[in-house]
Design goal:
The chain has about 140 residues and is α/β, with parallel strands linked by helices. Helices cover about 30% and strands about 30% of the residues. The chain is built from 4 helices and 6 strands. Strands 1-3-2-4-5-6 form a 6-stranded mixed beta sheet. The longest helix has 17 residues. The protein is globular and about 45 Å long. The N and C termini lie far apart (about 35 Å). This is ADF-H domain-containing protein.
Length: about 140
């Protein structure tokens, strides 16, 4: 099923890997990429459960758009261990206008395919998705 707005389909692997992250916690993060030639969103990188937040941010290209999902663990003020699944739309200022438009027009449809996202972030530079921002949005 292609997205009417941008014509982007979502590869089944995207949904399967997301379910593994959500249910089995097999991955710490997933980076998704739009393959323009195939007109679909595909999995670009999977982060190991032991990978740090820095490893996640380093896997996002400095000048290309991406979608990403990050499983963030934290401890509440009541000392409870919790986790939040973040959806991050990475759209750096230095990326091509066409790319930004395709990612922006496909985002909502893609996000709907990933059932269980708890927090959404839009970031155009690394400071907009720093660990402090993630922490503050998790509560």
């Amino acid at each position: 099923m292609a997205n009417a707005a941008s014509g982007m389909a979502v590869h089944d692997d995207c949904k399967l890997k997301f379910l593994e992250l959500k249910a089995k916690r097999t991955y710490r993060f997933i980076v998704f990429k739009i393959e323009e030639k195939q007109k679909q969103v595909v999995v670009e990188k999977l982060g190991e459960p032991t990978d740090s937040y820095e490893a996640f941010t380093a896997s996002l290209p400095a000048d290309e758009c991406r979608y990403a999902v990050y499983d963030f663990d934290f401890v509440t003020s009541e000392n409870c261990q919790k986790s939040r699944i973040f959806f991050i739309a990475w759209s750096p200022d230095t990326s091509k206008v066409r790319s930004k438009m395709i990612y922006a027009s496909s985002k909502d449809r893609f996000k709907r395919e990933l059932d269980g996202i708890q927090v959404e972030l839009q970031a155009t530079d690394p400071t907009e998705m720093g660990l402090d921002v993630i922490r503050s949005r998790a509560n």
